[in-house]
Write a structure and sequence with these properties.
With 138 residues, the chain is mostly beta strands. It is 4% helix and 37% strand. Strands 1, 2, 3, 4 and 5 form a five-stranded antiparallel β-sheet that branches.
Length: 138
């Protein structure tokens, strides 16, 4: 059994320019972290994470000159050796869980390509604290 110690997920934008339009031949893609969440999950049987997507981000697109794509970049830190489990407390009132003081770890990385679609501004405002108003003038 492999125990997950902690994990993080980042929303990354990847800006790439077509080779024919690059200023320098060795110009690489520009990767920017737009948002990130991190969770320590050692000792848990389940965990969840919520990654906000900023409303100001440009949707995914591609032209003959450049493209903007997005990835969910996952990093999982796992234990190499099986960990000893702390049993339930014997005394009344419980006890405090003590994590291991030392452990061998391994990190796994995974990039999941995703597509961001545009949203109608009024729909986006329903889920934010940004006030919107509609006026009609006759």
């Amino acid at each position: 059994e492999i125990d997950c110690v902690q994990y993080s997920v980042s929303l990354q934008s990847v800006e790439s320019v077509n080779k024919d339009f690059r200023v320098k031949e060795d110009q690489s893609d520009k990767v920017i972290n737009q948002s990130k969440q991190h969770e320590v999950c050692l000792g848990f049987t389940q965990s969840n994470i919520v990654l906000p997507i900023p409303l100001h981000l440009t949707p995914s697109f591609s032209t003959n000159i450049c493209s903007l794509t997005y990835n969910l970049h996952f990093e999982f830190v796992t234990s190499v050796n099986e960990l000893t489990r702390q049993g339930p407390p014997e005394e009344e009132g419980g006890s405090e869980w003590q994590g291991p003081t030392k452990m061998d770890i391994e990190t796994m990385v995974w990039d999941l390509p995703i597509t961001l679609y545009p949203t109608f501004p009024t729909h986006a405002a329903l889920h934010s604290n940004i006030g919107t108003s509609n006026t009609s003038q006759i």
